[in-house]
Design a protein that fits this description.
The chain crosses the membrane at residues 12-32, 44-69, 76-97, 103-122. The chain is mainly α. It is built from 7 helices and no strands. The protein has one domain (4-132).
């Protein structure tokens, strides 16, 4: 059974991804216009399709990290997420300077949800989740106990 902190992590992190999708939908035209107004980006010929490709790649990485953290208890994935969250927090001032209205509010909400989700990974009840995965034999789901003697 997964610890409460891991369940909370999962809910907050997946929730932040949903808010991110909503934010993209609401900010799509502004993002495309901003990209097209940048001469360096215009030289590359990037347009609306690039926004969708970049967002999709980011979403794929996020979902892979979620899976390996919440379902497999991977410490490596946890630390990658910590690094990505730190980078996101460091870029928050730039976002605050360029975003407006609902996009600004959603950007702050996304960052807060992800920060709290990452904090959940360091609570005391989450530690065994990551320690357990290191001792799980290959092919065994991480939330399946390997020592069945305690169930006798």
């Amino acid at each position: 059974m997964r610890p409460n902190s891991i369940v909370l992590f999962e809910r907050l992190y997946l929730g932040s991804l949903v808010v991110g999708v909503v934010n993209l939908v609401l900010s799509y035209e502004r993002i495309v216009a901003q990209m097209q107004s940048d001469p360096a980006v215009a030289q590359l010929g990037w347009g609306a399709g690039a926004v969708i490709v970049m967002f999709s790649l980011g979403m794929a990485v996020s979902l892979v990290l979620w899976y390996f953290i919440a379902r497999r208890g991977s410490s490596i994935a946890k630390w990658f997420l910590v690094a990505f969250t730190a980078i996101g927090l460091l870029s928050l001032p730039t976002t605050l300077a360029t975003a407006t209205g609902p996009a600004l509010i959603m950007a702050v909400v996304i960052n807060l949800m992800q920060l709290v989700a990452v904090v959940m990974l360091f609570r005391a009840d989450a530690k065994p989740w990551f320690d357990h995965s290191a001792s799980t034999p290959a092919g065994t789901p991480a939330d399946t106990p390997t020592d069945l003697s305690k169930f006798d």
